[in-house]
């Protein structure tokens, strides 16, 4: 009969392609049961959005198939999102495993469109997701999610996020009166509002909190970076070199603050002609990819240009809701999986650092 040790040593040869670590050392193998030649266990992945889910499962099945004493495998695959921020030291938001800021160098590159669809895509994989619209000067999340009439309630001195398509949303746009005056608010007031949205909201348990930041490097990104430990920042850009160069400045600030740059998302990468189905690189090809390589950042994927996305955004039906099987939605799903994978890598590094600190 096969032993637990034999199972674990066979499975320890399976390496997570992202984390570059053995799935056994990452604690992904749980609840092993052996009954004669029948083997049962759970493979617990680091995120339901892992782009390598299938590959890891296949590798596990192959490894077990090499054990001649096992005639039948009952494999359950689950996922538990890892903590990409040190919850043990963060008393302010201890139920949110990962906070991801979405930044851009300049306005109008599609940062909010990406934030909304990234949040929806992560939720679609089964993760618990929140979306904080931190663009206090021009909150457009309510419009994009068709929540213009939504209002946030306060319960036990905590703001209650509003549910939309399975994600929990907080936006300054829900305070219609104040939102009109936002343009006249100055640094300290704006920082105070953001802190309240982060900390005085009843987010409950979240795997990922996406924070849609205003463009540039003003008070809000700075407040986010300085208020609370965050997992990292993703930078949205368009293929034009000019936009990419501005993006470089944006992430330079985060790097100075020791905030990891998780990678770069290119929006409006190309347009597919509906008649000839050929891809047209209207703003140039691979601008963001080249920028990522130059600055040793991860390229998290490209989103095509599609006039339908504008109509969907204006009518409150994001593409992931209105047309979940479209190429557009698939590209958002692919980007979301890469973002989740980066979170797992950062979480694994954090866990190593904490272990090292505890050992010293
Ligand atoms: N891939 C795309 N294809 C077509 N239109 C897009 C795409 N991405 C965004 N848009 C449109 O571009 C406009 C700007 O997008 P969005 O508001 O997301 O940008 P932003 O960077 O958040 O802007 P701001 O700096 O004003 O906050 C919107 O009308 C949106 O619908």
From TrEMBL:
One Pfam family hit: ParA
Q: Which residue ranges run through the membrane?
A: none
Keywords in alphabetical order = ATP-binding, Hydrolase, Iron, Iron-sulfur, Metal-binding, Nucleotide-binding
Task: State whether keyword NAD applies.
Answer: no
According to the entry, every stretch annotated as the MIP18 family-like domain falls at: 5-70
- Report any one BP term from Gene Ontology: iron-sulfur cluster assembly
Record's SUPFAM superfamilies? Answer: Fe-S cluster assembly (FSCA) domain-like, P-loop containing nucleoside triphosphate hydrolases
Q: Does the keyword Disulfide bond apply?
A: no
A GO molecular function held by the record = ATP binding
**Binding residues for ATP:** 105-112
Q: What does this protein do?
A: Binds and transfers iron-sulfur (Fe-S) clusters to target apoproteins. Can hydrolyze ATP.
The text of the family note is:
Belongs to the Mrp/NBP35 ATP-binding proteins family.
Subunit: Homodimer.
Q: What is this protein called?
A: Iron-sulfur cluster carrier protein
């Amino acid at each position: 009969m096969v032993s637990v040790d034999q199972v674990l040593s066979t499975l320890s040869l399976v390496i997570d392609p992202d984390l570059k670590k053995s799935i056994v050392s990452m604690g992904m193998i749980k609840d092993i049961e052996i009954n004669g030649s029948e083997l049962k266990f759970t493979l617990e992945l680091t995120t339901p959005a892992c782009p390598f889910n299938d590959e890891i499962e296949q590798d596990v099945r192959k490894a077990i198939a090499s054990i001649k004493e096992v005639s039948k495998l009952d494999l359950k695959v689950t996922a538990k999102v890892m903590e990409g921020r040190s919850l043990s030291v963060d008393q302010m938001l201890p139920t949110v495993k990962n906070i991801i800021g979405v930044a851009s160098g300049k306005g109008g590159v599609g940062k909010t469109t990406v934030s909304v669809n990234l949040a929806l895509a992560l939720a679609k994989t089964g993760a618990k997701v929140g979306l904080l619209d931190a663009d206090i000067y021009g909150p457009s999340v309510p419009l994009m999610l068709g929540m213009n009439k939504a209002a946030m309630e306060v319960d036990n001195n905590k703001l209650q996020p509003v549910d939309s398509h399975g994600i929990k949303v907080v936006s300054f746009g829900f305070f219609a009166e104040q939102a009109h005056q936002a343009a006249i608010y100055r640094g300290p007031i704006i920082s105070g509002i953001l802190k309240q949205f982060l900390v005085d909201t009843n987010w409950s348990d979240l795997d990922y909190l996406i924070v849609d930041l205003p463009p540039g490097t003003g008070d809000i990104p700075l407040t986010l970076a300085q208020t609370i430990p965050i997992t990292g920042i993703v930078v949205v850009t368009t293929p034009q070199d000019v936009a990419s160069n501005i993006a470089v400045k944006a992430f330079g600030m985060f790097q100075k603050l020791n905030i990891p740059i998780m990678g770069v998302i290119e929006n409006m990468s190309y347009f597919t002609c509906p008649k000839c189905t050929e891809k047209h690189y209207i703003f140039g090809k691979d601008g963001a990819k080249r920028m990522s390589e130059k600055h040793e950042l991860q390229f998290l994927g490209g989103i095509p240009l599609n006039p339908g996305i504008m109509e969907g955004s204006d009518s409150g039906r994001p593409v992931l809701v209105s047309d979940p099987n479209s190429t557009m939605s698939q590209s958002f799903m692919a980007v979301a999986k890469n973002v989740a994978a980066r979170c797992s890598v950062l979480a694994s590094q954090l866990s190593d650092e904490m272990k090292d600190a505890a050992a010293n």
